[in-house]
Design brief:
With 335 residues, the chain is mainly beta. The protein folds into three domains: 72 residues, no CATH class; 114 residues, Sandwich (Jelly Rolls), CATH 2.60.120.660; 116 residues, Jelly Rolls (Sandwich), CATH 2.60.120. It contains two helices and 17 strands. Strands 10, 11, 13, 14 and 16 form a five-stranded antiparallel beta sheet that branches. Strands 1-8-3-6 form a four-stranded antiparallel beta sheet, with no helix packed on it. It has a four-stranded antiparallel beta sheet with strand order 2-7-4-5, with no helix packed on it. A hairpin with a 5-residue loop joins β13 and β14. It is globular, with a radius of gyration of 23 Å.
């Protein structure tokens, strides 16, 4: 028959099961997993930039660690930039990606022509695929004719994609309705198991950004740059509340840090931890992306379940400065 993706999720009432042959409800459930693969779009990156206000006469670049899907999905990049200009100008927005094999590669560059404006929030939307081995992206913003711009936010999430035949790299098995089509189609154990397995595969494959701290990749324009003798003990940033709807107990976050120091030892110079939590992860400021995991404890499993995370920094040399360019954390559901 065909691989069919519903245009919307189709819930089933309890009475749908005893009043029909099992092949009918199971067919609907499996089509719902096709829908999930197409339309599940958690934010892999949601970044409110720590940025200088009204940048002019130069470009601003941000390096952001990422955790893409194993399925090589096409992602949507939505930029929010505040602009001010006395005359017409062009806002140039560029996204690039990096992997160890190919180095930096262009994703997309967009030139947006804008007239004279005062504090206008401009939205730029781009798309481009990210393979599973992409470790970092970088965004660059610039404007000509003396225009002033302030990068506000970047949202990166999967675009809706058509389900095609063949098992995906993440392990998702597309459902073709041929074997269950019609009344009384045979029900197999594999089809029953696939309904749950497909849903869990999609959830566990697509990382959800729960924390971000991103500054310009330029030590001359950092908003936070601890250093010298006063920074040789931990200096904590204000905590950020992380909401993880419906979760409780201990969960594990994937975390990444990009930082460097101007001199001395780079060991254990950036720390991410839960406020009042027992666990913390420390990063070396190597100038490359460093990855680890962090266990956090959540509340009662309600829609308001959350924890508070904070970044802390220090240097190991009283003449050193610490450049923290990015700290990111993601959650992947496990149950």
């Amino acid at each position: 028959m065909a691989i069919t993706t519903p245009t919307q999720y189709v819930p089933l009432d309890q009475q749908a099961f005893p009043l029909a042959s099992m092949s009918g409800p199971l067919d609907t459930i499996l089509k719902n997993t096709n829908y999930l693969w197409t339309y599940h779009r958690p934010a892999m990156a949601s970044v409110a930039y720590m940025s200088e206000f009204e940048i002019t006469g130069r470009g601003a670049t941000y390096w952001i660690p990422v955790l893409p899907s194993a399925d090589g999905l096409v992602y949507e990049y939505t930029h929010k930039v505040m602009v001010t200009s006395a005359g017409a100008f062009t806002l140039t927005t560029t996204v690039e990606k990096y992997d160890a094999t190919n180095g930096w590669q262009a994703v997309q560059t967009t030139n947006t022509n804008i007239g004279a404006v005062t504090d206008q929030l401009t939205t730029v939307t781009q798309t481009g695929a990210l393979a599973a081995d992409v470790t970092i992206i970088r965004t660059t913003y610039s404007a000509n004719n003396g225009a002033k711009f302030t990068p506000h936010h970047l949202l990166v999430r999967p675009t809706p994609g058509a389900v095609v035949s063949g098992i995906t790299p993440s392990g998702f098995v597309p459902y073709d309705d041929g074997s269950l089509a019609g009344s009384g189609g045979p029900v197999t154990t594999e089809h029953v198991n696939r309904a749950q397995a497909n849903a869990l595969t999609v959830l566990r494959d697509r990382a959800q950004c729960v924390f971000s701290w991103v500054q310009e990749y330029d030590s001359a324009h950092l908003i936070v740059r601890p250093g010298l003798a006063s920074a040789m003990s931990w200096q904590a940033s204000p905590p950020a509340r992380v909401g993880v709807n419906g979760q409780q107990g201990t969960i594990t976050l994937d975390v990444a840090c990009l930082a460097s120091v101007t001199r001395g030892s780079n060991t254990d110079t950036v720390r991410l931890q839960q406020v009042n939590g027992a666990e913390a992860v420390k990063f070396n400021a190597t100038g490359a992306v460093v990855r680890s995991t962090l266990e956090v404890n959540l509340d009662d499993g309600s829609s308001e379940s959350c924890c508070d995370l904070e970044v802390a920094c220090k240097v190991n040399d009283n003449l050193a400065y610490l450049n923290v360019f990015a700290v990111m954390a993601w959650w992947k559901p496990t149950t």
